[in-house]
Amino acid sequence: MQSLKEPVLFSSWVEHLLAGVVLFSVGAYVLEVEYGGSAHSLEGHPFWLWIERVVAAILTLEYFARWKKEGRCYPGSRLGMIDLLAVLPFWLGFIVPAAWLGLVRSVRILRLLKLYRHSRAMRIFVHALLASRKHLTGMLLIVFILVLFGAVGIREIERDAQPEVFGSLFNSIWWTIVTLMSVGYGDAVPNTMIGKGFAQVVMVLGVGLTAAFIGIVGSNVYAQVQKLESENNEPKE
């Protein structure tokens, strides 16, 4: 398992400045989308476009500086791919069709992933998920089986009473996922007594799956916290 400590290549004030640039970029995106009223940056006010150009230039320089310092392993590393994802859409904007520019602008939100380098809590959670992947893979298989079981079951029970709602297997899968996750949109509701009883079984299974997920991930998060504390308490040579 990788260490929770990430390499610090720049001084603390530079690292904090880069984190601030990321937050500023995402904030500017939100303001541009909310108040700019344009499909993409080229159609809006030049102010937003120049903000993005300056931010992209800073993040691009950061990417190549880290590449130079960390060496050939950097582009394929987790942080290297995150840093590339933060700047690549901007440069792709020069070659993609105009119809895609709105999507390219929206991808800026993924720059928040760069905070992984600066947030110890975020690193703990990610490492905990990675440590739980064997258990979570088995859970995903169980969820897949339950979704198909619930979809087929509710379709067979309710399709004669509500053919427009449960006549399609895809609609039934949607209902099953919403019910398992305890979301309850209310757009599809069983009317028959058997259907209501079946729905209660699906709900109980969904609560159990949620509790199991919290238990698996929570135990690994605690283990990662304990590991981090032990690393911090190690005597420095």
Describe the structure in your own words.
This protein is mainly alpha-helical. It has helices spanning about 10-35, 45-70, 80-90, 100-105, 120-130, 135-160, 165, 170-180, 195-230. The chain has 2 domains: about 10-120, Voltage-gated potassium channels. Chain C (Four Helix Bundle (Hemerythrin (Met), subunit A)), CATH 1.20.120.350; about 130-230, Helix Hairpins. It contains 9 helices and no strands. The longest helix has about 40 residues, at about 195-230.
How are the secondary structure elements laid out?
Layout: H1 12-36, H2 46-70, H3 78-92, H4 101-106, H5 120-131, H6 133-158, H7 163-166, H8 169-180, H9 193-232
The radius of gyration is 24 Å
Strand content: under 5%
Give the low-pLDDT segments.
Answer: none
Structural class comes to mainly alpha
- Series of secondary-structure elements, N-terminal to C-terminal: HHHHHHHHH
CATH homologous superfamily identity of the largest domain: Voltage-gated potassium channels. Chain C
In this structure, how is the largest beta sheet organized?
A: none
What is the total tally of β strands?
Answer: 0
Assembly of the depicted chains: single chain
- Based on the structure given, which CATH architecture of the largest domain is correct? Up-down Bundle
Overall geometry comes to: flat
CATH topology annotation of the largest domain = Four Helix Bundle (Hemerythrin (Met), subunit A)
Distance between the termini: 23 Å
Helix content: 55-70%
Rounded average pLDDT: 87
Number of helices: 9
Number of domains: 2
- The CATH class of the largest domain, by name, is Mainly Alpha
